[in-house]
Amino acid sequence: MNKTRQADLGTPASPKTETVRVEIDGLPATVKAGTTILRAARESGIDVPKLCSTDNLKPFGSCRLCLVEVEGRKGYPASCTTPVEAGMKIRTQTEALSKIRRNVMELYISDHPLDCLTCSANGDCELQDMAGAVGLRDVRYGFDGENHLDAPVDASNPYFQFDASKCIVCSRCVRACDEVQGTFALTIEGRGFDSKVSAGMSENFLDSECVSCGACVQACPTATLMEKSIVDHGQPDHSVVTTCAYCGVGCSFQVEMKGSQVVRMTPYKDGQANHGHSCVKGRFAWGYASHRERVMKPLIRDNTSDPWREVEWQEAIDYAARRFKEIQARHGQKSIGGITSSRCTNEEVFVVQKLVRAAFGNNNVDTCARVCHSPTGYGLKTTLGTSAGTQPFDSVMDADVIMVIGANPTVAHPVFASQMKQRLREGAQLIVVDPREIGLVRSPHIEAAYHLPLLPGTNVPVINALAHVIIDEGLVDDDYVRERCEIDSFEAWKSRIMRPENSPEGVAKISGVDAETIRAAARLFGSARNAAIYYGLGVTEHSQGSTMVMGMANLAMATGNIGRSGVGVNPLRGQNNVQGSCDMGSFPHELAGYRHISGDEVRSQFEEHWGVTIDPEPGFRIPNMFDAACAGTFKGMYIQGEDLAQSDPDTLHVEDALSKMQCIVVQDLFLNETAKFAHVFLPGTSFLEKDGTFINAERRINRVRPVMEAQQGKDEWEITQDLAQALGYPMNYSNAAEIMDEIAELTPTFNNVSFKFLDDVGSVQWPCNEDAPMGTPIMHIDQFVRGKGLFVETDYVPTEERTNRKFPLLLTTGRILSQYNVGAQTRRTANNVWYGEDLLEVHPHDAETRGIRDGSLVALASRKGDITLRAKITTRVKPGVVYTTFHNPETGANVVTTEYSDWATNCPEYKVTAVQISPASRRSGWQEEFAARAEQQGKIAETNQ
Ligand code: SF4
Ligand code: SF4
Ligand code: SF4
Ligand code: FES
Question: 78 C-alpha to center of ligand 4: Å?
């Protein structure tokens, strides 16, 4: 029996709460009403044989292996489809049952290759287990009859194979794809003996609709669908539970190991964010951790044109400290700063912001949330009182109307999208507000009630118009507003919203969405019993990002949709630990727990603990650092795990700033684009080596556990600690748990959190303290964190970025499923097979008028710069709008994005750039320079080897 296989109780848990008593094999058992006999038996420790059922899929009743006897009933009911009844007396093991089960297994085995000893599933095969369990010793039919043993192997998917000769047609894979993933990529083709599993229209897996989530592979009880890593390396011998290091869903995984080698990542059934599901990134794209380009030794160089020099840790740390000290001596204490990483653990982040405040002696610390969800922090804190989403993911299962604004969950938060799709298939209604026709608008068994394809940059007028209709048509929840909100703020907001410019007709002209659609969507949202808003970077990355976040909070409060399950305002946060990096005090104006740096009481608490004086003035944000660098007053940066040169907007300006600095220290896995401007490179650790915590989009604090030692010799918090010490500040943690203890002591919302507590309870959602010892899944239940909810007026101030004759189109940006952000990880995996380059989506009309063909090269120009990329002609974008991703550094999507940013937080306006496109035949000037620089850096790297 496989040592790492997770328990399978056969069928899903019953949702009922009342219990019934039954007798199974003479022993009493108490189970929830509605539980199947199979599950009741398994919960009691009796393993009734089964093949076609598994506990994350609805019972199917096809294999007939799980038959049982029930006293007083004729025949042999299938235990997986028969619910228990009070007083039932069940027998799971009798002579008659054994005979039936042996006959069933005999039929299966007569058409199955007898290669158990050399099969990749040997030791982890349910068919093999069942043959043993029923005592099958002989196959009377022989093996010479008609069979499927010559069926071909489909190895087209880079991560798993489909060996049809081993298929028992139990349909678990098909049902997993339908029920769990919601992609409906598989079918059972044919009938009887000819029935077989087919991907898409008899395609191979790679060419089909399959999104490689792995649910079918996990569901398969045989070696038919099998991870190639298991085929290559064999079965695991131990496992460790940890958290995915890609997106803000924060899926729990069981990392399965053979000795010191990772052989598989299996989604963890008890993971409270993912309930045993996964996407292609977390499930399969972990090979980057051991990619040959990963840097394993510290590097230093005096000038960026010099070759890197490999040195020992102490030399690199001393070198960085000396250069930082020299800069501060010459240019002042505030001439350097640090960036924390949302890819790193809370503990690693906390020590970096502490290094800046305590050892650098300033508040020049910022984080990549600056460029993604900083408006979420500002907007939700202002209106509701806390800088985070209001709900757990499971809350979506109680929503009746779901409004998705500026987010593309099926590609950016795939596991949550699958859960949302389950709810939509159950009948919840969907409103999508997005310039593009994202996948959710129309997919198998799902169709949005309304899609509002607004022009990029017009979120605020559209949310105002939705509110206008809700007020106008009497859909405001007056009781809720009166009891829960500041009534004066409501009245002021209401009178602004009722101005004619906020009517659907007024807004239709600027947003491009017709008034009737706005009206209908507002009615649907405003009349719902439970209406929930989910949003993403398509909301925040605008010059009115904070306004829009507050606009959504206003709408949710006005309709009484905050404070219970099924409702809320929910940011789908991008990176694995972007919530945590903000919680940890990574912003220049806030200490851990979002407490302003100017607060004497809070500051003195930290000062006492850290033994230093903390500057009461907020420090620089990232754009301030760049501007000051260009002006010659900001000279050094310690950058933990963020590729500023690729991910920040207005690349030419960023490159100018980076090239003007005297000491850039990059701590990362790979020599990324920013490292081209660096003087010290400190190799970091992958998530497989980290000990700590990540916090996902639902405020869930998940444990990250190491499955191996730090491969380059040092934990990341230790690197930061060494640097602090070299700068003369005593930092003396002996492990990551001690750092979390300090976070908990200094941060009221984390008071109860410790590694031990998390190991005991699994995970917890903050606030977790004396008032909420087991955490807080839903926020603002009886009252808002700020007391009364605050309505904030959300007048529309259009961006200064406008289309004109020279740049008549609007560019907006986003992601695709298989790549992740700047692609540093996913580009170093087989995920490239799905998307090797960034493409520019263009509407056929815009393409035709410019003579652009599908797949041809296009020059994309804005007032900031120009790049060349390949066109994809599609009606997913409407005329006048083009769209691209930013996963590949050589594309340089941010060469064209602008300096405009959110008025409150400086979050860049990635989503709106006025551009022109034209046919092209070669790379742009910047791309030529990029290629030359990459070649030069490649040569420098080679001289080091
Ligand atoms: S990998 Fe996922 S999407 Fe692909 S066929 Fe299997 S369940 Fe469906
Ligand atoms: S591929 Fe696996 S899960 Fe799918 S029908 Fe065949 S044996 Fe069952
Ligand atoms: S949904 Fe996000 S957290 Fe989950 S496996 Fe995919 S990338 Fe990882
Ligand atoms: S497990 Fe019940 S019929 Fe297959």
Answer: 6
Nearest CA to ligand 2 atom 2: 220
177 lines ligand 2 (CB under 6 A): no
pTM over 0.85: yes
Instruction: Judge residue 8's burial from the number of C-beta atoms within 10 Å of its C-beta, 0-12 exposed, 13-18 middle, 19 or more buried.
Output: middle
Q: Which atom of ligand 1 is nearest to the CA of 219?
A: 7
591 Cβ closer than 6 Å to some ligand 2 atom: no
Determine the atom of ligand 4 nearest the C-alpha atom of 67. 2
Whether ligand 4 lies within 6 angstroms of the CB of 52 is answered as: yes
Q: Is the CB of 63 under 6 A from ligand 4?
A: yes
Beta-strand runs (E) in 464-545: 531-535
User: Each residue of 33-58: pLDDT tens digit?
Assistant: 999 999 999 999 999 999 999 999 99
Bridge partners of 485?
Answer: 789
Q: Number of helices and strands (H, E) in the chain? A: 29, 37
Helix axes 346-354, 736-746, angle to 10 degrees: 70
In three-state secondary structure terms, 260 is coil
Surface-to-core class of residue 747, CB atoms within 10 Å of its CB (0-12 exposed, 13-18 middle, 19+ buried) = buried
Query: For the purposes of burial, counting CB atoms within 10 Å of the CB of 472, is it exposed (0-12), middle (13-18) or buried (19 or more)?
Result: middle
CB-CB contact of 136 with 109 (8 Å): yes
Asked if residues 620 and 803 have their Cβ atoms less than 8 Å apart, the reply is no
Contact by Cβ (8 Å): 324, 663: yes
Tens-place pLDDT, residues 116-143: 888 888 888 899 889 888 887 777 766 5
